[in-house]
Amino acid sequence: MTERVVPEPQRRRRRPTKQGTVLSEQVIVETALRLVGRHGADALTVRRLGAALGADPSALYRYFRNTDDLLLAVADELIGRAQLGWQPTGEWRADLCELGLRVHASYQAHPQAALLAAHRTTGRDNEIRAVELILGVLRSAGLHDQEAVRIYHAFVDQALAFAALDAAALALPAPAQAADLRVWQDRYSRVEASAHPHIAATVRLLAADMMLSGYPFALELLLDAVAARLPGAGREAG
Predict the structure, then answer these.
(1) Considering the domain 8-65 in this protein, what is its CATH number?
(2) Which of 11, 60, 109, 190 is deepest in the core (most CB within 10 A)?
(3) Residues 6+ apart with CB under 8 A from 199
(4) Which pTM does this prediction carry?
(5) Spatial distance between the Cα atoms of 70 and 64, rounded to a whole number of angstroms
């Protein structure tokens, strides 16, 4: 795509495509998610999207300036899906924990898209809503603004980093995924205890734990650190 987006009032297509689809930003984004999920990053082209929608590729310029604009919309869709149905409890730790796990799960549901989008800043409605929610939880917990912003940064980067890492593993072909997991069961189980006593002592635990995402426990560690920085936490500990 090139920079030639149609002005907002002229975007809506009145006639359905050859497949009977009425184009909209949401329809295009959902189609892009499906194509990327099946075929990877190479599917994110106007030609393939147009073919999947039964529309002339040029029609996509009514909605997105270029493929990067579309990618940002895809990223924002994943952020929005993480928020669907979420209701704050008023308890900061429970709320942050659920938000983090929801973000991670949303990206894991679309690993190919996560590889393309987890590191992007969209500036779109869903992302703005998420930033507002997380900062609101942190400020309502009693953190001053500078601390709230720093913790927000760490919280979001941790969630997205694990989302991208775990998505990369999920996006591997099934034989490669299985081979990676077998390394912990096969190769590490045969190391010499005299040379690697700590691996030998924990190898069964390692083999079981490395099959899972490290994110839930890492999130708990982060939340423990946040709790320790809340106003009055030091006095309560003492």
Answers:
(1) 1.10.10
(2) 60
(3) 188, 191, 206
(4) 0.85
(5) 6
